[in-house]
Amino acid sequence: MLKNISNLGDAALYCDFGNEINRETNLHVIKYFKNLQKLNLKGITNITPSYNKLIISYDLSIINFENLKEEIKNLNLKEIENKEAKIVKIPICLDDEFSLDLNRLSEKLEIKKDKIIQSFLNKQYFCYMTGFIAGMPFLGDIDSKIRFQRLETPRVKVPKGSVGITEQFCNIYTFESPGGWNIIGNTPIKVFDKFNEKNPATINPGDKVTFYKINKDEYLKFNE
Amino acid sequence: MNKAYFEIIRPGIHSTLQDLGRSNQYHIGIPFSGSMDKRNYLISNKLVGNKLNEASLEFAYQGPLMKFNSGKATGVITGNVTFNIIRKNSKIDKGVCYQSFVLNDGDKLDIISTNRSVYGYFSIKNGFAAEYFWESCSVNTKAKIGSNNGEKFGINQKIYINKNESLSDIKKIDYLNSKIEYIRVLEGTNFNFFSKKAKEIFFSSEFTISKFTDRMGMRLEGTKIENLSETNIRSEGLIKGVIQVPTDGNPIIMLSDHGTIGGYPKIAVVISADYDRLTQLTPGSKIKFKSVELNEAENLYKLYEIETENILNQIR
Question: Is B180 left (phi over 0), alpha (psi -120 to 50) or beta?
């Protein structure tokens, strides 16, 4: 539930949904997010959901903190319809050249590579939030047996399409970027496509995601 | 398409098309972007009679050297900028900021440098031909969004203009970019993660702006800010002006092209009224912070808007 609203600077509301990170808390965040998207309240310029917080940016020349806070507190929330959450299937190639950290993970976790892959592919994930870089989804929760901390020294360049895991989360690097997640494979699909202006991000907050394995040949031919 | 264009002979350090930026895309990882110094951007459009959100060429430190081809056009440069107009007959006209000028076929515009500041704006009557993504042409080089495939301009590229038109009268205003003694901030949402001493250091000592500063963020160096609680938080949304303190204790201020989600504690947030002037501070210069209350910040923004409005209204 929404526990507290404070200000983040003079042009954003910081809505706190508590300290726990789980799907239930996040679904509350997403409920507010989707309702606000539909309501299109005057003055709001951006809404950013994350695990357990929602940041609402506004145009200070149109509305101020106190007034918008009152509006948010008194929102008449509607339930989110189930059909709004998509199920997205993501192909992933797990060959050695793409799974940069799989050997290391296997050693550290003392679990065979095949078992890690099997465990990863077996679950359906939930998108908590999208961002940091354009279209990057933060998915969870991965099986507790294959959880591991991030790299001590982040990579300067993580290849585009890399699928990484850290603690209970999984993400996809939509651009080549610096990053410290453990890379286990790579997807050939465009998870972010700027030319699709209506729906540039393949995976949105609240969506469900599964991964399926493809081989190198299928990977290379995927975009033909 | 209109035939008049600028041909880039020297692109400068970071020359991009910008406007007021794009909204409603934070939730998929796309920040506002847009011109860093909004006031100077608006003035440049007003001085050539454009609509206020027309695409303008923003440059940093050293701007481009460009040759104008076909016809006649009126342009203007705002900021604190040294530039020359090299006429077709090789005569050099020294450029004056905040005063429109006419370019003829074969003239070159040489934007030499921004002085004691970072950004300057070049606007042309009727605007540059730009590509729009989510209602904005603003270039975000990280997400490769905006005009020119989301890239800064390179050598030999052509920048087309929408329609040639030279205005009969020269428009100008007297405007002085004021220096700022303090950057005013509001306490951040993780203010209490920091020790009493760290808070004192934050508000009393000087920080130096590092050379690792760009449109995404401004890194500061100085006395380290000690964190008592945790040096990482669960990733959450960011906005421009947020000051995060990572594990090494050196603050980073989020600027217009910032990553939309971050996991470092937020010690403070720069007030909206001081954002333009913040972005104009050059690497190596010193910066001090001063704490204000929310209602004060809101009033200062109203004042900033009235001032901007007054400046724009002086241009007729």
Answer: beta
